[in-house]
Amino acid sequence: MDQFAEITGFIRSIFQQEKDFIPLHAPVFLGNEKQYIEECIDSTFVSSVGKFVNQFELEIARYTGVNNAVACVNGTNALHIALMLSGVDGDDEVITTPLTFIATVNAISYCGAKPIFVDIERETLGLSPTSLSRFLKENAVLRPNGCFNRVTGKRIKACVPVHIFGHPCRIDEIVKICSEYKIEVIEDAAESLGSRYKGIHTGTFARVGIVSFNGNKILTSGGGGMLLFNDEELAKKAKHLTQQAKVPHPWEYIHDEIGYNYRMPNLNAALGLAQLEKLDYFIELKRALAEKYKSYFTSLDIEFVAEPDDSYSNYWLCCVLLNTKEERNSFIDFTNNQGIMTRPAWRLMNELPMFRDCQVFEIVQAKRIADTLVNLPSSVIPELSKDN
Ligand SMILES: *Cc1c(COP(=O)(O)O)cnc(C)c1O
Hints:
The protein is α/β, with parallel strands linked by helices. It is built from 12 helices and 17 strands. The protein has an 8-stranded mixed beta sheet, with helices on both faces. Strands 12-14-17-15 form a 4-stranded antiparallel beta sheet. A 3-stranded antiparallel beta sheet has the order 9-8-13, with no helix packed on it. Helix 4 crosses helix 5 (102-110). The relative contact order is 0.19.
């Protein structure tokens, strides 16, 4: 308890907040947000047509280094579109990580497909290429029409790795293994806007990737998400699907397939665009905060989750690993009672009632990390700026 009190004092000192509540993550609006939103309202184009949404797509494509980006209402439906475009259907299975936010697995479920949960690694907190490789060696059979699961008889159509809390997973190895088994990769980079692996932006290693701009992410458009492509044809299909599959025509309503009302409103894009102008500044401050946490927790002999090798993390949410679940629980109780918001990792997906009967493979690291991880307050602190 003495140690918990000391940690609480430390967190209060870096956030320069003696008594007030310290949230896990709060957005900051320091730039052109109000100006762009006002401009958007004045233009009357507040819905899904307008210049901000087009410009936001161009700027995100440029920032992440892809040819095309397609804006969506949120990251979950960006994932839904990505899975559909990868050919995932109701008889399929999709490999993913058990330690992720529910959105990843909900999107798989919207296609009618079933997730398979493969273990993660401590170093990246993401899907383990070693475990994935072992799973496929033991369970997969390659046929002319795809990769099949020996145990369930179903086709394994896709794999969705996730860059957890902003830390890149070993995405190049995962893409390579999946291509050997003819499995499509959809990169869930919802939490890792600005994070790079081997110098390349996360979300751009596979045929399709997604990012999210939800209120608690590093950059927010209120709600929003974006699909990332290098294949222009695929991007066109995505845009078509997000706009009710309406065929362009000066006045007639023609829809050539079942579409979705998934396009991001201009109003949200105006907010997102202003936030994007500050993204590098946000990342600089988050990395400065991570450095402070890292040296402090290392001095206490508590394991801080630092960015993995070969990667540049946006440190969206900082975290530590405690020794046991009991210790984790009492730490979270203590800090929250003191007005400092801390949270455990998500409950493992395979333990939720909807996914309890899904196939799991190894899940050893995932269990340990789910039991002992604590997310720490991680908001941008302007005072940590080099200019201050
Ligand atoms: C936030 C998030 C999403 C989806 O984002 P929304 O914009 O909230 O729909 C998907 N996957 C992960 C891992 C996320 O953290």
